[in-house]
C-alpha cells in the first residue's frame, strides 16, 4: 500500500522576475521508499540556502529533473533503517543532521548513512538543520584552502550571511584578525558580536580597498573569502596581500568576475575555488574532518549558529524571498513543527 507525505514539490522552473517564489505550495506526494541500504528520517527542520533560489530558477550547476522536492540540509529523527545498514551506527529514534542534493523541504527524507551524522549535544533541531553546509564550507575554506595562520588578516565578504558568520568565527578560532564587510549597520552589529575585529559597511564604502590597506598598514588582506563576486571581487584584487589567497565560493552579486593574469603574477596571489559539495565525492576524508572540526568548535562555544528566523514549510517562499532580497542575517530555517504565518 502506497503511503503519502507532505512536501514542497516543484513542477516548473520559477522565473527570476516577479514574486513567484512566494507561490510555492505544499502538496501531498507519494512517500519515498526506504531501501535496504537507506535510512529514513522524519524531518524536524530544514536549512535554507541561496543556491536553493538558484536551483528553483534553473541557474544552479545541479539541475534536478522536474518534478523535484528542493532543500539540501535537514535535521530530524531516524524513523527507519534498511536491513543492510543496521550496523551503520544509526538507530530508530536517533537525532541526526544531514545533507542531500534535494528532498529536505518535506516531512520525510530517505538518504544514505554517509549523508548523516548524530546531532552534537546541546544543539537544537533548528540549529542542526543549518549547521553543516555553512560551517563545513567555511572550515574547508579557512583550514584546507587558505590554511589561515595566527595573526593573518582575513577579509570576509557578506559577513552577516549564513556562510559569512561561520567564516568569521572559524577564522577567529584560528587566531586571525578578521575584517567583515556587510550591507547595513544592523548587520555590522551582528558581525561584531560574532567576533570580527573590524567591520566595513560597503553601502557607504563601495571602494573598500583603501580602508583595508589602512587597517593592515599597507599590507592588504592575507585571505579574502568571497561569496559575492562582481564588483566586490574586482575591489578585492586591489587589496590582496603578497602571497594572499582569494577564496571564491559563489557569485551572489549575479556577475561572474575575471582577473587579468598579469595582476595575479605581480601580486603573487592565489585564486582558489571552493565548491564544498564535491568534497564528499572527491575527498571524503576532508568532509569527515570538516564535520569533526566544526562540531568540536560548537561544543567549545567558538562556533554559534545564527538563526535569522524560523518559518513553517508552507512559508518556504517567504524564507527564500528574504534570502534573495539580502534581508537575512545568518540563516532562515524551516521548522516542520511551526504553523504557517497566515494561520497564526
From TrEMBL:
Residues 19-334 form the Enoyl reductase (ER) domain. CDD domains: QOR1. Belongs to the zinc-containing alcohol dehydrogenase family. Quinone oxidoreductase subfamily. InterPro entries: ADH-like_C, ADH-like_N, ER, GroES-like_sf, NAD(P)-bd_dom_sf, Quin_OxRdtase/zeta-crystal_CS, Zn-ADH-like_protein. PANTHER family: QUINONE OXIDOREDUCTASE-LIKE PROTEIN 2, SHORT-CHAIN DEHYDROGENASE/REDUCTASE. The lineage of its organism: Eukaryota, Metazoa, Ecdysozoa, Arthropoda, Crustacea. GO terms for cellular component: mitochondrion. One of its GO terms (molecular function) is zinc ion binding. This is NADPH:quinone oxidoreductase. PROSITE patterns: QOR_ZETA_CRYSTAL.
